[in-house]
Amino acid sequence: MKITSVSIRLVRQGAESWHAPRPVPADDYPWFDFPFITIGTDGGVEGYTMEYCPLGQGRATAYGIKDIFQMDLLGQNPLHHEKIWQRLRAKQRHLYNTAPTLASSLDVALWDIKGKVAGQPVASMLGLYRDKVPLYATCPPQDIATSDDVEAAVRAKIAEGFAGVKLQLSGGAARDIPRLERARAVAGAGYPLMVDSSATLTFEDALKMGRALDDLEYEWFEEPFPDAHVMQLKKLADAIRTPVLAAETVSLFDLPQYMTGGAVDMVRGDVHHKGGITGLMKALGMCEMMGIALEIHTAATPLLDVANLHAGCATRMSRFLESHHPMFRLGLKNDPLRVHADGCQHVPAGPGLGVEIDWDWIDNHTVELIK
Length: 371
What we know:
Elements: E1 3-14, H1 16-19, E2 31-41, E3 47-50, H2 58-73, H3 81-91, H4 104-118, H5 122-126, E4 132-139, H6 147-159, E5 164-168, H7 173-187, E6 193-196, H8 203-216, E7 221-222, H9 230-239, E8 244-246, H10 255-260, E9 266-269, H11 276-290, E10 294-296, H12 302-312, E11 321-323, E12 344-346, H13 359-365, E13 366-370
Parallel strand pairs: 4-5, 4-11, 5-6, 6-7, 7-8, 8-9, 9-10
Antiparallel strand pairs: 1-2, 1-13, 2-3, 4-12
Helix pairs in contact: 4-11, 6-7, 7-8, 11-12
């Protein structure tokens, strides 16, 4: 079997739902252009994937993937995903003006093909450990301005059946600690709560928040500083009981230094940040050898999050999966990324990624075809 084509659609989703109930700000992008990638083969089997795009990079990313990696794929056997993965990784050595994540989504399409050829879900091909994973909801920051907003958001997510709730708060200790306290009062003792500060805090603020999180029994304190601030991460991890979760933006081959140096208590990763399904499974294996949990991060694009679900069902190292804004569940029939009554996402049982593409929706939202 050989790869014969790489085609990309730009699938446009308006930004209104992301900002609702507020209008789209005048200085923000009015739409999200998701690159929807199809890898074709001479056996008639196609693999599908989608790229990340919420910051206006969708079109540039689509052309980058096409221009940089198409020649590395054409003529290759898509079942030899490791050979292709290593080839694309080696090429990154001199791609100074692109991020290593650019090729990650291509690996997901190769696994989709591999599973379809074998007639097996990707999770089974990886070695099924479980068929569902508890799902927590992340409350988008634009929905949270006051403690009352926190209460409303937490109540809503609990009512929807999620197994936990994460707040994205970047206001600093004085503003955020009361909001963290309100969330705990609403959720009650024992209900899993997390907080993500999106790399915005000073060490002093993070220490104050961390001590409050110890008392409030939050599950983790995510990305208080940029991942590059290794010394600050280690100081905080040593000073508080709440696990510090970081290394989301760290590449697969830089990850060991964060674990051996004690900079993190828990690792962040997903198929986009860690090199596709192949790379994420390597990261999970690395974490298992080190005895450190890897919590899978949303990829904010539906097919990558389905790939995250398959990987999450092939490991014991992730307690949860993450569900972000509902707009990132577009273009798929039967809503495979929904939360079920048991508070979990259930892995699709069909071959490959196991999802059914809503081609009518994709066609109606395609604004450009890149062949």
